[in-house]
């Protein structure tokens, strides 16, 4: 497994496994504490694992946590997703940058999203399973949602949106969400 910095988002990393394939399929390590530690992250900081299953066109996000934020490792374990990170850390050299990635069950690449960054994704396949490893217990009172189609972010989602949660449909613009987060 190797770690690669994401230039557009300060402190974000892609962790790329080394799969071993044969006639049975493949095997790969999707988390390695030594590799995580090698880029300055505490592998023991992650306290919750979650999994979502989405159908093609489903969009989830853009989500962020207020307060101390939430760092996460995100991996598409089955299918394929278009994954987006928005840096909303005011002191970051990549503040308001947007980066997108295609994550898939084929590659099992894991994306590290630093605390203070918004995150969202769209399922590109009929079924897409997305695994999250989160560094703090979830507190719904800290949830912040930003409109997926905010014109300032200008994210080019690859498919028409087939479904999203009520919360995501009603999400405020980036500027309104940031004002609400600060108050």
Task: Explain how this protein is built.
It holds the Pfam family dTDP_sugar_isom. Catalyzes the epimerization of the C3' and C5'positions of dTDP-6-deoxy-D-xylo-4-hexulose, forming dTDP-6-deoxy-L-lyxo-4-hexulose. With 183 residues, the protein is mainly beta. 10% of the residues lie in helices and 40% in strands. It has helices at 33-38, 166-169, 174-182; strands at 2-5, 13-16, 20-22, 25-27, 48-55, 59-65, 72-78, 80-87, 98-104, 110-113, 117-123, 127-134, 143-145. The strands form three sheets. Strands 1-2-10-7-12-5 form a six-stranded antiparallel beta sheet. It has a five-stranded antiparallel beta sheet with strand order 9-8-11-6-13, with no helix packed on it. The longest helix has 9 residues, at 174-182.
Question: What is the count of DSSP helices, taking H or I runs of 4+ residues?
Answer: 3
The shape is: globular
Tell me the helix content.
10-25%
Structural class: mainly beta
Instruction: Give a short account of the largest sheet.
Output: 6 strands, antiparallel
Strand order of the largest sheet: 1-2-10-7-12-5
Number of strands: 13
Low-confidence sequence ranges: none
Order of helix and strand elements from N to C terminus: EEEEHEEEEEEEEEHH
Radius of gyration: 16 Å
Q: Overall mean pLDDT score?
A: 95
**Percent of residues in beta strands?**
35-45%
Q: What distance lies between the first and last C-alpha atoms, to the nearest angstrom?
A: 41 Å
């Amino acid at each position: 497994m190797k770690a690669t910095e994401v230039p557009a988002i300060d402190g974000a990393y892609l962790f790329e496994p080394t799969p071993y394939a044969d006639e049975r399929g493949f095997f790969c390590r999707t988390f390695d504490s030594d590799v995580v530690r090698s880029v300055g992250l505490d592998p023991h900081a992650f306290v919750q694992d979650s999994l979502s299953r989405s159908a093609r066109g489903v969009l989830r996000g853009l989500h962020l946590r207020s307060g101390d934020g939430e760092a996460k490792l995100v991996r598409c374990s089955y299918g394929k997703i278009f994954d987006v990170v928005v840096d909303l850390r005011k002191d970051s050299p990549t503040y308001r940058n947007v980066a997108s990635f295609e994550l898939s069950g084929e590659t099992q690449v894991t994306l590290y999203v630093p605390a203070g960054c918004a995150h969202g994704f769209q399922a590109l396949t009929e079924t897409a399973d997305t695994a999250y490893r989160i560094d703090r217990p979830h507190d719904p009172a800290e949830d912040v949602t930003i409109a997926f189609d905010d014109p300032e972010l200008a994210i080019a989602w690859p498919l028409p949106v087939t479904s999203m949660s009520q919360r995501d449909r009603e999400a405020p613009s980036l500027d309104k969400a940031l004002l609400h987060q600060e108050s």
